[in-house]
Amino acid sequence: MRNLYQSFALLTALSSVASSSAVCNVGSNDPIAFSKISLDYLVIGGGTAGLAVASRLAEDTEVQVGVIEAGTFHRDDPLIDVPVNVGLTEGNPLYDWDYTTIAQPGANGQSFAVPRGKMLGGSSGMNFLAWERASQPEYDAWGSLVQDNTWSFQGLLPYFRKSATVFPNQTNPFPGLPPNGSSAAFNPEDEGFSGPIQIAYSDLYMDPVFPFVQSLNNIGIPTLADAEAGNTTGVENSRQSVNRAQGVRSYAATTYYCRSVDQTNFHVIMNATAHYLQAFRIGFQNSSDETQLLTAKSVEFTLGNDTYTANASKAVILSAGAYNTPKLLELSGIGNATSLESLGIPSLIDLPQVGENLQDHLFAPVQYQVKSGITTFDQFRINSTFAAEQAAIYNSTRAGFMAASDSAISFLPFQATTNNTDVDSLLQLFNQTVADSNASPLQLAQYDIQGGWIRDGTVPQMEFILFSRGFVNLGPNTSYINILGGGLHLTSRGSVHINTTDALVQPVISPNWLSNNFDVAAVLEGLKFALRTGSTLPLADLIDIQTDPEPDAQSDAALIEYIRGSVETAHHPVGTAPMATRVVDASLLVYGTSNLRIVDASIMPLTVAAHLQETVYAIAEKAADIIKVQS
């Protein structure tokens, strides 16, 4: 997000905070020994999905499981562990792949930072902690697209539950809840109580949070008692992936990795960059012969200046994420044959959809300076006494505002923010955008589903997030809030492709943001509703001045100009190796292979209106069961 959060320095507090994320051993990092292990399963990428699937596979003590991870384990690192520090690792190459997009014509030619976690635990170690499940129709749409009903809300529900443990004895303090709603989110039919990831409500809330919720209530937006049950329309108190007892982030490294690291059949090599997959052909003649399958046998990787090869007998599992998974497929000869051969890479399987179908969420921020005396997270920036006091509280109790972060989030369909005439206009614009596009069969199937959602109002199209802090152009001794409003189910589809055979070079990331009129209109609707929320009581009583966009930018044309210059990504990339024809099947097998599977957000055929980590963990949990049965 343009590294907005780098301005939020903790000054004296950061240097004095001790973290305690896990009492966890770190295994050997000997690449020679790792390459000599007779692995059954080899996972490329020790991130959110990779560690989860590897840990579950290693529950079978008869198999050997290996993981190749490019980053390291940042154990007891306050930049990762301390909840208030969300965002501070973005753009730091010690934690982040530090990738950027190519220039985006729809966003005034800007290129954008697109942070992805380069560490053990991946992006689960750098996300903003939100633990959310999308609506039931969105997961059911996956089942429709892949013609497999196990990829549905009910089919995924056991895996949502399996990944998490809900912190007990908490109540939801948000305004507007129905009777008995404060504890409704602890339904054992929806929630997990024995999974690795710890989730909890925040214990403390900054001053603007409850007025934000009340303003939405006053507009007519309900407060959700249980946003995990399949209906997400409303405003919710998003639980967070935080171990509330310890006051630290709960993520894949401190949970899935730590639960398995002492097992003799679980092996992780860190600081190792995978180059490509090597394959052994079994009578493989050409990619059009569907009876001849390619079998992945090994992966080449580097650590330091040396190159090694790791072997696997049962399966190679790509869990490198929506940017690096298509990159590794293409480096290995799996992708668009014409493009690969132009780089001198022999085509093993011609799969033109690899690297296509990139989707993300887009936001436009509204920033307000709040009145004096309103406490926000900016106190850490402007008040050294407050910061020191909070550091002392955190070090002694693992509580206080350093153990907190913002959690007020609203997911809404267009029908909740505007009138039926405007909804009809948005639907017409959507239909015209689709008609004017050169859409693939997968995209046409997606658009058919998306159009129904817009028409029926059954699935959120927009998200609104309150951040109790300032992002840009911050004045001394002043506090701010930001309301991010944006579009979730957009029509633009981007791509991720290599343009070199050098595995150390980032892929070309072209998201095509704001490339058509519907997407611009959807983000505009989100921006206008964010502005409406800020001008509604009681939140309006906290606000001194609006700083972004300029208060005189009131026409649609002026707001669109602001959007093109200020749009942000939510860093939720998905879909670049989707469950779709001639890419990945419902068993997560890459088309044309017998044992190469993909387990990460790239397999999602259609994005969901939610922050992604809960969904990615569920994908990994489901994948582990599939692989155990089929290998």
Automatic annotation (TrEMBL):
Cofactors: FAD
Active-site feature positions: H572, H611
Keyword Ubl conjugation: no
Ribonucleoprotein listed as a keyword: no
Pfam families linked to this entry: GMC_oxred_C, GMC_oxred_N
Residue intervals of the Glucose-methanol-choline oxidoreductase N-terminal domain: 117-140, 321-335
Organism: Lentinula aff. detonsa
A GO molecular-function descriptor: flavin adenine dinucleotide binding
Signal peptide bounds: 1-22
Classification of source organism: Eukaryota, Fungi, Dikarya, Basidiomycota, Agaricomycotina
Protein name: Alcohol oxidase
Organism superkingdom: Eukaryota
Keywords: FAD, Flavoprotein, Glycoprotein, Oxidoreductase, Signal
Family named by the database record: Belongs to the GMC oxidoreductase family.
